[in-house]
Amino acid sequence: MPRDRQSLAHVPILTYGFRPFFLGGAVWVVLAMVLWIGALAGAWTIAPGYGLIAWHAHEFLFGYVGAIATGFLLTAIPNWTGRLPVRGGPLLALFVLWAIGRVALLASPLIGVLPAVGVESLFLPVFALVVTREVVAGRNWRNLKTALLVALLALGNIAFHAEVVLRGEASYSLRAGATVILMLIMLVGGRIVPSFTRNWLARRGATTLPAPFGPFDIFSMVAAALALVLWTAIPDRWPTAVGLFVAGLAQLRRWSRWTGPPTWPEPLVFVLHVAYLFVPLGFFAVAASILWPSALPFSAAFHVWTVGAMTLMTLAVMTRASRGHTGRALTAGPATQAIYLAVILAVATRLAVALAPQLTGSLLTISGSLWILAFAGFVVFYGPMLSRHAR
């Protein structure tokens, strides 16, 4: 190995995918939320040729979640395949490609919308190829479905840009992107939540353990996939609401089989159950927004998934993986618990907009500030362990 590549492979932050992408993703969403709140207050404009709302939705769904999914998968895949992790120069190149995409959209007034979306669209297809290569090279065929979901996320990202450029807004691709991310959460969460719970309970001699993966899990995933596809295609019809409600019941039943309540003494495990609970709650909320839009607007219901399931689950995974892979104890101290609580309160205040629309501006600011507090806390408390050698 050339000396420069060998030295890069030993830079602490480039030894595993979770290090740059967890830290970079957290720093980015703090900045992005500050920009979003300032833009709502009229202090500045963001990507005027692209659109403020489209930029906000894109940078959460595809920018932030894309980064965290990359960090998680680049760390998990070596365990699945037995291959060495992507590290050093190749990892740095992937991270730079992701970061350039964030800058490109912000710079769209200077470089043009089409060049900006072209640059931004490069990262996820490249990452999908990396995942596919690692899975195939390791003959880990069962995880080809993960590579497929990453490829679908890349297609959803391109479709999002196409909709914005051609129609001025993204609707179908917004729902399609959310669908892929939720399927990833249900797929990966359905593996790690019961597994970590089982390990924690078994060490304490518990006799009631999470149910093993079985036919009901497959049914719940299929029901969710069908309901989400229906929602993507026809989001405002009563059959869609029925499908979402049925999928929510199936996911709630799946969640209940994982024996979550006894894990409350260890927030690092318990938070995984709280995060996954927002998946069925999101199904119920979006179904209700279709049937009673005046009582529960879609924008509020959708945030049960985005701020609840997606944000809390990613932070739960980020904190656990950061601690475990750097040799720290797998326990959540007061700072980590505060991070979790801030996200849960952010969901509550975002939903409160539907109950008190006259306070919309204040509640959105509070929710965004809690979001910033959570991720700034992650950067402060977890940044040092991500940027240094493991213990």
What does this structure look like?
The protein is mostly helical and 391 residues long. The mean pLDDT is 93. The radius of gyration is 20 Å and the shape is globular. It starts with a helix and ends in a 5-residue tail after the last helix. Helix 2 runs antiparallel to helix 3 (52-81), helix 10 (215-233) packs antiparallel against helix 11 and helix 13 (298-324) packs antiparallel against helix 14 (334-355). Helices cover 77% and strands 0% of the residues. It folds into two domains: 1-170, no CATH class; 190-391, no CATH class.
**How do the helices and strands follow one another from N- to C-terminus?**
HHHHHHHHHHHHHHH
The total strand number stands at: 0
Largest sheet descriptor: none
Low-confidence stretches: none
Secondary-structure-based class equals mainly alpha
Number of helices: 15
Question: What is the share of helical residues?
Answer: over 70%
- Calculate the terminal CA-CA distance, rounded to whole Å: 26 Å
| Count of the domains | 2
Oligomer, anyone?
A: single chain
Q: What proportion of the residues form beta strands (DSSP E)?
A: under 5%
Shape estimate: globular
Mean pLDDT: 93
Please provide a brief summary of the model:
This protein is mostly helical and 391 residues long.
Draw up the topology in text.
Blueprint: H1 3-9, H2 18-40, H3 52-81, H4 88-106, H5 108-111, H6 113-120, H7 123-137, H8 144-167, H9 172-203, H10 215-233, H11 238-256, H12 267-291, H13 298-324, H14 334-355, H15 360-386
Please name the defining characteristics of this protein.
391 residues, mainly alpha, 15 helices, 2 domains
